[in-house]
Write a structure and sequence with these properties.
The protein is an alpha/beta fold. It contains 10 helices and 8 strands. The protein has an 8-stranded mixed sheet, sandwiched between helices.
Length: about 300
């Protein structure tokens, strides 16, 4: 496929970015070839992002589609909403705050077209996020390596390019807890990586709080891997083995020293230990069962309050 015949779709989750999203869209419209579509997904912003996005759609009616979600669903749900409205041959997901330079978009698409990749991730020579965000990203990357069988040398960046085939397969998932990178690795192993610039945020702070990071990790744990359940099973076997060893120790101690007193601290420690292990395993199983219930109960992945397009 020749570059000049490719239709590009850009999906941008928008959250409290009234001061930057207009510049991002303006830059994309100026530098990217047509046909081009830009899908803005307002994920429950508390500022004036809604008004700004409406104005952008009116200013670029042939290019911009604006989706206003009914509340804040989280980045991955917002991305899924945007992916469901794309029509391009290649789809690029990027941030709303200029941390992902618009000038780098074509580099991702060229890499995908040249090598036939289904997805192209980005790597950064220097990642200009806060220490907390960098720590969270690093921990998320380690977890994905274990749970999703992600290649160790691949960083799961939010700035990525996907083929039409891959997007069509991803949006078949309608569960309430999407994790886009988990869905990608369920579908394909044809991936590439390109190095791009990563800019510091021009305005505001990252929307990722500790609570949102924990929610993201739980999605990865429970929705895309059976490893936690297998770990719970192995933990149960391990605890049972320790209990048997302790029983043997007490039996032999009593045999060689009949007057040896049995202390209540040992009993208390054992009860607390086994009770804690049981609660952990019950909680883990309950998390799986609860998510199954919510999925069967048709909990929505996202709800669109308004859609603005030509």
């Amino acid at each position: 496929m020749e570059m000049e015949n490719i239709k590009i779709s850009i999906v941008i989750p928008v959250y409290n970015s009234e001061k930057t999203i207009g510049q991002v869209v303006g830059k994309l419209v100026d530098i990217l070839p047509k046909p081009l579509e830009i899908i803005l997904v307002n994920d429950g912003s508390k500022d004036s992002s809604d008004c700004v996005c409406c104005d952008l759609q009116k200013e670029h009616p042939d290019t911009v589609i604006y989706l206003e979600l009914s509340k804040n669903y989280g980045e991955h749900n917002a991305v899924m909403a945007g992916l469901n409205h794309t029509t391009g041959d290649y789809v690029v997901v990027m941030d709303d705050d200029f941390q992902n330079p618009p000038e780098e978009v074509l580099k991702l698409i060229k890499e995908a077209v040249t090598h036939g990749y289904e997805v192209v991730y980005t790597s950064y020579p220097e990642k200009k996020d806060s220490r907390f965000r960098n720590f969270g990203s690093a921990l998320n990357d380690k977890m994905a390596t274990v749970l999703l069988k992600k290649p160790k040398d691949l960083y799961l960046s939010s700035f990525k390019c996907m083929s039409r085939f891959l997007v069509d397969e991803i949006i078949k998932y309608d569960g309430p807890y999407p994790y886009v990178d988990g869905l990608i690795f369920r579908i394909t192993d044809r991936y590439g990586v390109v190095e791009v610039q990563h800019n510091a945020r021009q305005e505001g702070e990252s929307g990722y709080t500790l609570t949102k990071l924990l929610r993201l990790w739980m999605n990865m744990f429970v929705n895309f891997s059976l490893l936690p359940l297998r770990f719970a099973t192995m933990l149960g076997f391990g605890i049972s083995g320790l209990a048997l060893l302790y029983t043997a120790f007490v039996t032999f101690s009593k045999f060689f020293n009949p007057d040896l007193p049995e202390g209540w601290p040992t009993t208390v420690v054992l009860i607390a230990f086994f009770s804690g292990a049981q609660l952990i395993m019950l909680g883990l199983v309950g998390e799986y069962v609860g998510r199954i219930f919510l999925s069967q109960n048709k909990t929505p992945q996202f709800c669109i309050r308004r859609k603005h397009k030509k």
